[in-house]
Amino acid sequence: MVEPAATIPLAAEGPERQRTIRALAKCIPDECYENPTAKGLLYLGRDLALYGVAVWLLLTTTSVPLVLAGWLLASFTIAGLFVIGHDAAHGALFKNARLNYLAGQLAMLPSLHVSSVWAYGHNRVHHAFPGCEGLDFVWHPVTIEEYRALSWWKRLRHRLDWSFLGAGTYYARAIWWERLMRMPAPERMAAPFRRDRLVVVAYLMASSALVAWAGWEQTGTTAGAAWTWAKVLLVPWLVWNVLIGWAVYIQHISPGMAWHSRRRWRKFAGQVETTSNFHMPRWLNFFWHNILVHVPHHVDPRIPFYNLPAAADALTQGHADVGDSLPYYFSDYLETTRRCKLYDFDRETWTGYDGDRSGAASTGPSAAA
C-alpha cells in the first residue's frame, strides 16, 4: 500500500516543530514561479482545441468505438481545462489578474464550474485549512458518532460515496451542487457569485440548445436530439465528475494522511500531512497537468502546474521528508477506499464503520513509505 511522503506530526518537538510553510517555500527556486503569458495561452489553446475535436467527433459519428473514444477525449480534456482554470483562480497562470479571470472563466465552462464561487471555497477555505475538522470541506470524514446519527438513507449514501464506486457521485453532489451551485454568497461576494453563476447557466443553455438542434437536424426526431445532447454534453460531464472525484480523493485521503481537530490543527502539519506527490503515466499527465504533484501546490499555490515537478524536486532536496514522489496504482485506491471510512479525531486514525481501528494505519511518519 502506498502512503504519502513522510511528514512531521503535530506532536513533534524541537527544531522540526518550528518548521513553517514559509521555510519550505524558500527551498523553491524563483524559476518555478515563472509563468510567461505565451505558455499559459498555449496550454489553454491546446486543451480548448482538443475539447473542440472531441465535441466534433461526438457530433459527427455514430460508431460505438468512436463515440467511446470521444467520451474519453472530452472528459480528459475537461479535466485538463479545469486544471488550467484552477491555476488561473490561484493567479498562477498569468501575471495579469484580468487575464487570469477571463482564462479561468473560459476554462471552467465545460466542467460547469462557477469560477468565483469555486475560487472562494478552494482558495480561502480548503487552502487555508486543509485537513481541519469542520472547515476543510474536501472529502471531509465523519466520526462513528456522526455516522450513527445519520438517517438510514444518508448512511447508505455515505457507504456509496466512500466506496471505490463513489468518487463521481460524491464530487457531483457535495462539491459541484452543494458548494458551487447552492452555496450562499457572503455579502461582499454576492455580485460576482451571481454574475458567474449566470455565465455558467447561460453557457449550459446555449450549448444545450445548439447541440440538441444539431441532433434534430441529423435525425429529425426528439429522441435523436436528446441522445445527441446526452452524447456530447451529459456523458462527458458525468465521466469528468468521476475523474476529478478520483483525483481529489487521491490527493487528500489515505490511511497515512492525518486530519486534525480545530484544537490540534496547525498550518504546517495541515499543509504537508493532508496531501502527497504521486507519479502519473505520461499519457495521463498530458491531460491532467501534474494534478497529483500536490505538496508543492499546498506549499505555495502561486506555482504554475508545469513547474510543480521542479518545485517538488527542490523541496525534496531541502526537506527529504516532504517533496518525494511515489507510485500510485489502482490497487492502492481500492485499498484506501476499503480502509478509510470514518475518522477518529481524538486518535487521528481512520476506522471502519464499526469503529474498529485495526484495519487503518496510524498517521504520521510511521505510516509513510
* Run of helices and strands: HHHHHHHHHHHEHHHEHEE
Quickly count the domains: 1
Kindly, what is the distance between the CA atoms of the first and last residues, rounded to a whole number of angstroms? 9 Å
Low-confidence stretches: 1-18, 361-369
What does the main sheet amount to? 2 strands, parallel
Q: What is the subunit arrangement here?
A: single chain
- Beta-strand percent range: under 5%
- What is the strand arrangement across the widest sheet? 1-2
Shape: globular
Helicity level, as a percent range?
55-70%
Number of strands: 4
What is the helix tally? 15
Label the structural class. Answer: mainly alpha
- Rounded mean pLDDT is 88
Rg from alpha-carbon coordinates: 21 Å
What does this structure look like?
With 369 residues, the chain is mainly alpha-helical. It has one domain (14-367). The protein has 15 helices and 4 strands. Strands 1-2 form a two-stranded parallel ribbon. Helix 2 packs antiparallel against helix 3 (64-89). It starts with 20 loop residues before the first helix and ends in an 18-residue tail after the last strand.
Task: Tell me the layout of helices and strands.
Blueprint: H1 21-25, H2 37-60, H3 64-89, H4 97-108, H5 115-126, H6 144-149, H7 152-161, H8 167-181, H9 190-219, H10 222-252, H11 267-273, E1 277-278, H12 282-288, H13 295-299, H14 308-318, E2 325-326, H15 330-339, E3 342-344, E4 349-351
Parallel strand pairs: 1-2
Antiparallel strand pairs: 3-4
Helix pairs in contact: 2-3, 2-10, 3-4, 3-10, 3-12, 8-10, 9-10
